[in-house]
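Quick one: structure tokens for this chain, please?
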Amino acid sequence: MTTAMMNWKHGQTWYRIEGDLQNGQTPLVLLHGGPGAAHNYLIAIAEQVRPTGRTVVLYDQIGCGLSTHLPEAPKEFWTPELFMEELQLLVEHLGISDNYFVLGQSWGGMLGMQFATHNPAGLRALVVADSPAGMKIWVSEANKLRAMLPAEVEATLQLHEAAGTTDSPEYLAAMDVFYAKHVCRVPMPPDVLASFTQMSEEPTVYHTMNGPSEFHCIGSLKEWDIHDQLHKISVPTLLLSGAYDEATPAMVQEIHRRIPDVVWELFPLSSHMPHVEEPERYAKILNSFLQNHDAS
């Protein structure tokens, strides 16, 4: 394992390499969610890939984790284009820009899809895990899931969202009820908790781009939508999602019908983190897909 920093115009991006980039297999770059959740909760995916000998690159996107934090940056600074530039610079920095896979989870999948619509040279295949292609459908589906929560939980959420008191303990407790059903349905492992903890301690990116919670999007991504761009993705694409996912089957279906070369695997026991909730099946499906599209 190697850890280092990439210097660029906005600061430093921390990354970690699991394996040897020169071992002949196409390396896999992991894009974490949030925005701002950092790499920790995706370490499990690196561990699932490790037995195959494939090299995995994890990194903390600018603004979070072990990378440079920019709490004073204006709202306009935090755009998908910023993170697409960072990703392109990183694969160039690592010398893999002519041959690599991308797996993006949640926000990372949103980023990965938008990145792939530009047909970057060297991207061999894309894995999109638990992601929407637009925030309006995300909010619409979230409202359907919220409507199935206990009435007192939904009433608490609505009360504090209307009052602007989404940092209150009552709101956070109600949010946890939703998370237990639609974010992770098993006890959260330490790496997942570490991502949630660091995001709560430095919430600038998440609050600016998304908002105070998964289902209350009032940030700069509120109007984000790339459904009409998905047909431009030319690489083989694997969609992964859970039956109870906040990225609901309805929204993943909208992605599935727009990408030309795509397969979709639904995890029947999982919500937003099937790599944690059904790890054995996840590893089998992911590694098979990567092996089938390895440039070697």
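The chain has one domain: 2-292.
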